[in-house]
């Protein structure tokens, strides 16, 4: 289903890091509004290579090597076979890179997550580049998928307790906020990266947000799978203990069983975890559920306002 973006209405203002109001709460993000926003942007922002910005290259390698799962997925042989050079082709507008710096200094969970989703997506896209035609533009969508979180209060992003409904709405706002920000920064109302920011929480079965549409774009779904997987195998504010890799893979395969994700992309992720790196189409995925999810996981738990005020 092609998303009807005219049905998407901002729940909160969308502002840049320096406080410029791009669109106010209540705005319907129809074609004309988004086209006008793209035309409002300056002619061009300076761009810089992502891996050459600040300590990104060093941090990315450190994140890969400090996690046992990622050491398996990103051995030196794989990184050196062209993956890092593939990632190094990505250049981003300076305001986008400044948003990355904001997360580095204010929300390290999000900073690390953005970089690792980028690396995972680049790995899968690199393997699919012949059939997907993956280019620098598509790969650049990885480090921009959560850009809209600059519009979410840090207290909400870093909350360790179950969220109230209003806070959950603030979190979900990052999808449409990222769509607005990237349309502006990239000066393109039809930007692939902007669509990824908007749609990476949509699902094949229509169970996602913000539009609840049937996600059919393969590249966007690849980002979505990487997004979920990285969130599972790493600590998060709402869940200090990570999923072990087996449990995380089981969550992802269960989503494929239910039709939330497609098997093709899930098999590619599973194959990247396997010794010998079998071809995805030859990868047999176990449907056994023997993992042990971590305890004290507050993800998805909504705390109603009455129980909060009564504490």
Give a written overview of the molecule.
With 311 residues, the chain is mostly helical. It has one domain (5-235): Hypothetical protein af1432 (Orthogonal Bundle). It has 15 helices and 6 strands. A two-stranded antiparallel sheet has the order 1-2. A hairpin with a 5-residue loop joins strand 1 and strand 2 (21-23). Helix 1 (31-40) packs across helix 10 (165-186) and helix 12 packs antiparallel against helix 13 (245-257). The longest helix is centred in the middle third of the chain and has 22 residues, at 165-186. The radius of gyration is 19 Å and the shape is globular. The model is unreliable at 306-311 (pLDDT under 50).
Number of strands: 6
Q: How many structural units, i.e. domains?
A: 1
Number of helical stretches of at least 4 residues: 15
Strand content: under 5%
Chain oligomer state: single chain
Q: Biggest sheet: strands, sense, closure?
A: 2 strands, antiparallel
Q: What proportion of the residues is helical, as a percent range?
A: 40-55%
Give the uncertain stretches in residue-range form.
Answer: 306-311
Which helices and strands occur, and which strands form pairs?
Elements: E1 14-15, E2 21-23, H1 31-40, E3 47-49, H2 56-66, H3 68-73, H4 76-87, E4 91-93, H5 94-106, H6 108-127, H7 129-132, H8 136-140, H9 154-157, E5 163-164, H10 165-186, H11 192-199, H12 218-233, H13 245-257, H14 263-273, E6 302-303, H15 305-309
Parallel strand pairs: 5-6
Antiparallel strand pairs: 1-2, 3-4
Helix pairs in contact: 1-10, 2-6, 5-6, 6-12, 10-11, 12-13
């Amino acid at each position: 289903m092609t998303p009807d973006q005219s049905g998407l209405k901002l729940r909160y203002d969308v502002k840049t890091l320096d406080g410029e109001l791009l669109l106010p709460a209540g705005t319907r993000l129809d074609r004309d509004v988004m086209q006008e926003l793209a035309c409002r942007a300056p002619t061009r922002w300076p761009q810089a290579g992502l891996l050459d910005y600040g300590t990104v290259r060093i941090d990315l390698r450190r994140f890969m090597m400090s996690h046992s799962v990622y050491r398996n997925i990103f051995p030196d042989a794989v990184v050196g076979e062209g993956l890092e050079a593939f990632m190094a082709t990505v250049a981003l507008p300076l305001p986008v890179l400044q948003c990355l710096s904001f997360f580095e200094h204010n929300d390290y969970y999000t900073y690390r997550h953005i970089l690792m989703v980028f690396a995972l997506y680049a790995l899968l896209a690199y393997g699919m580049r012949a059939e997907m035609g993956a280019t620098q533009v598509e790969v650049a969508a990885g480090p921009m998928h959560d850009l809209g979180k600059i519009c979410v209060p840090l207290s909400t992003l870093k909350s360790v307790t179950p969220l109230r409904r209003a806070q959950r709405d603030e979190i979900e706002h990052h999808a449409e906020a990222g769509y607005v920000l990237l349309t502006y920064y990239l000066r393109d109302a039809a930007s692939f990266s902007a669509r990824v920011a908007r749609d990476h929480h949509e699902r094949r079965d229509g169970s996602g947000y913000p539009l609840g549409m049937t996600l059919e774009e393969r590249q966007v779904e690849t980002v979505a799978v990487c997004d979920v997987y990285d969130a599972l195998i790493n600590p998060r504010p709402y869940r200090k203990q990570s999923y072990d890799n087996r449990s995380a893979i089981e969550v992802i395969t269960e989503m494929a069983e239910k039709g939330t994700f497609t098997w093709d992309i899930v098999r590619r992720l599973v194959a990247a975890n396997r010794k010998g790196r079998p071809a995805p189409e030859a990868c047999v995925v176990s449907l056994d559920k023997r993992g042990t999810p971590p305890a004290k996981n507050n993800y998805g738990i909504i705390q109603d306002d009455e129980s909060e005020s009564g504490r």
